[in-house]
Amino acid sequence: MPTSIRAFADLCEQLESTSSRKKKTELLADLFHCVDPDEIGSAVLLMLGRAFPESDSRTLDVGYATISKAWSSKKQSMLFEEELTLNGVTSILGKIAETQGTGSRKVKEHLLQNLFGRVTTKEREYLARSLFGEMRTGVSEGIILDSIALSSGAQNIEEIRNAYMLSGDMSNVAEIALLKGPAELKRIGPEPFVPFKPMLAESIGSVEEALSIMGEAAFEFKLDGARVQIHKKGDDVRIYSRRLTDLTESLPEVVGLSRKSLADDTAILEGEVIAFRDRPLPFQHVMRRITRVHDIEGLRDTVPVKLYIFDILMRNGESLVNLSCMDRWHVLEDAVPEDLLVPRIVTGDPAIAAEFFNLALSEGHEGLMAKSLDSIYAVGRRGKKWLKIKRAQTLDLVIIAAEWGYGRREGWLSDYHLAAVSGDGFAMVGKTFKGLTDEEFKWMTQRLLATAIRKSDHVVEVKPTIVVEVAFDEIQESPTYESGLALRFARIKNIRQDKDPGEADTIETMRAMYESQFKTKDRIVEK
DNA sequence: GTTATATCGGTGC
DNA sequence: GTCCGACATATTCGG
DNA sequence: CCGAATATGTCGGACGCACCGATATAAC
Predict the structure, then answer these.
(1) For a disulfide at A240, which of A131, A229, A268, A408, Cβ 3.0-4.6 Å?
(2) C1' nearest to CA of A294: which nucleotide?
(3) A401-443 pLDDT, tens per residue?
(4) Å from A420 (CA) to B7 (C1')?
(5) Which distant-in-sequence residues (6+ apart) come within 8 Å of A37 by Cβ?
């Protein structure tokens, strides 16, 4: 019996109304028990809010604008039409994805209209969330994996998790686990040309803190570029991003280097690609390279990229993920030329580590990674085995407007427009929604509404009265803000009750900070 | 009919 | 990418 | 020793910046 979209929407509603993780897991497990076997994959993806698995390169190219257009102009349903099933939805999504070329936007919109026209208001709501990619049911990867484990009777959740991290396809993992049994998933390592999720790091404040957790650690330069996973077999080389997309065509230098410098026939390496001239270039330039599809050759000279390798996950066709960090490094040293390796030391001495941190900064890099020496490569996991250490700067800025929040922040002004003092006015340099507690959001909402000048749908302009201390990682050149500058990773550190707007930092100060970044970084002067 | 500009979606951090 | 809050579980505390 | 208070591990959700390509629309 095929599962109707109605059942899906009902379940979503239930999930949303409970905050208990255990309860959510059980509800999902129930779904997996009663769903038609060939609809398991569709159910998982819709529940996740993804049209396709990460390992699938298809995209809908449908977002907020298109969905809301289709939503408001939906056609009336035809009475005799049979009820929509999960696979029915999936097949429509496939059609939307394959539609391209002139007029495709309209076609996509029509397909959506038909889809929306066939369902009830509630079903349409959750369907739209699936398409938009934000379910807001309090269910995502972690809980779905748990429920797959629960309903498939897996002894160990880690088997399920590992299979997902290695394949990047939760629908497939669910199908295998539930239909053939979790034992079928026992692939313990990566395979060439099947990109897997990289191990991730937690942030920490200093090298001292890192050492207090790890005792002794490997410290590596943290480079501000794009994470790459390099797969090689013979002369075939493919480069994958952190989210498993194929970057091979954009990075011919990396392909060439890998082919030339890697003696092994079959290998998987991990590293960082940065834009680099005499010194590192700002991150914006890396983006230019990795999002480029046309005329890559034309940009190679202007924005050269450099590859730094920091891990090896396969050599001679054999998985190395279960070797310790230290052992993998030794294999790596043996496998690739030294000039491709990321700068690295091993120490337990805070003074030496701090000195290395300063060296990284002075050479224009982000900071350091600290890695626990005996840790295996935990595919797709984030934990305290890898720590990232960066240095933030701060500025005192003025809030000149705020935007209404969504979801759990509905009813609060939660996204703030930040400005520096500019002459007798203010110059906007970014927005932030991070750093305040719920209580502070409430307080801020009241304060801002009290000084509101103008209100539109989403934005409330306010009299500039509130000064906040804003932390950030970098100042970027901005095409969106008139000032020409923008903050990267801005977050509020403090509400400066003691400061008047006139005492906030000026745009000149900010420009000077921007310029000083080039004491350690290189810049491109383009005509 | 061709070319410039705007909008949208998807991706990196 | 960063940050906060919520839930579940582990650990410590107080009597 | 046991139940209560507190710490820790994980997950989910809230949204930022820039960039490019593809498509739609405006302007010539």
Answers:
(1) A229
(2) D21
(3) 999 999 999 999 999 999 999 999 999 999 999 999 999 999 9
(4) 29
(5) A178, A179
Nucleotide whose C1' lies closest to the alpha carbon of residue A242: B12
Q: Residue A73's pLDDT is what?
A: 77
Bigger pLDDT: A421 vs A3: A421
- Give distance CA A395 / C1' C11 (Å): 40
Task: Tell me how far apart the alpha carbons of residues A295 and A351 are, in angstroms, rounded to a whole number.
Answer: 47
Residue A240: closest CA among A158, A168, A341 = A168
The reported pLDDT for the residue numbered A265 is: 81
Q: Of A53, A9, A25, A34, whose CA–CA distance to A138 is shortest?
A: A25
Q: Residue A338 has which token pair?
A: 């030294």
For residue A121, count CB atoms less than 10 angstroms from its CB and return exposed for 0-12, middle for 13-18, buried for 19 or more: exposed
Does residue A243 approach strand B to less than 7 Å at its CB? Answer: yes
Sequence spans of domains, chain A: 5-187, 200-390, 394-519
CATH code 2.60.40.1120 for A5-187: no
> Which nucleotides of strand D are protein-proximal, with an atom < 7 A from a CB?
9-24
Of residues A262 and A14, more confidence is placed in A14
Nucleotide nearest to A131 (CA to C1'): B9
Strand D within 7 A of A480 CB: yes
pLDDT digits (tens, 9 = 90+) for A268-289: 999 999 999 999 999 999 999 9
- C1' (C7) to CA (A334) span, angstroms: 46
Report, in ranges, which bases of strand C sit under 7 Å from a protein C-beta. 1-9
The architecture that CATH gives domain A394-519 is: Beta Barrel (2.40)
Is A183 strand, coil or helix? helix
Q: Is the CB of A201 under 7 A from strand C?
A: yes
- Annotated catalytic residue within A222, A232, A306, A385: A222
Residue A201: strand pairing partners: A383
Which CATH number is associated with domain A200-390? Answer: 3.30.470.30
- The nucleotide minimizing the C1' distance to residue A23's CA is C7
Q: Is the CB of A488 under 7 A from strand C?
A: no
Q: What's the burial of A29, exposed, middle or buried (CB within 10 Å: 0-12/13-18/19+)?
A: middle
A69 is catalytic: no
In this predicted model, what pLDDT tens digit does every residue of A437-459 receive, in sequence order? 999 999 999 999 999 999 998 99
DSSP reduced 3-state for A250: helix
Cβ-contact A221, A361 below 8 angstroms: no
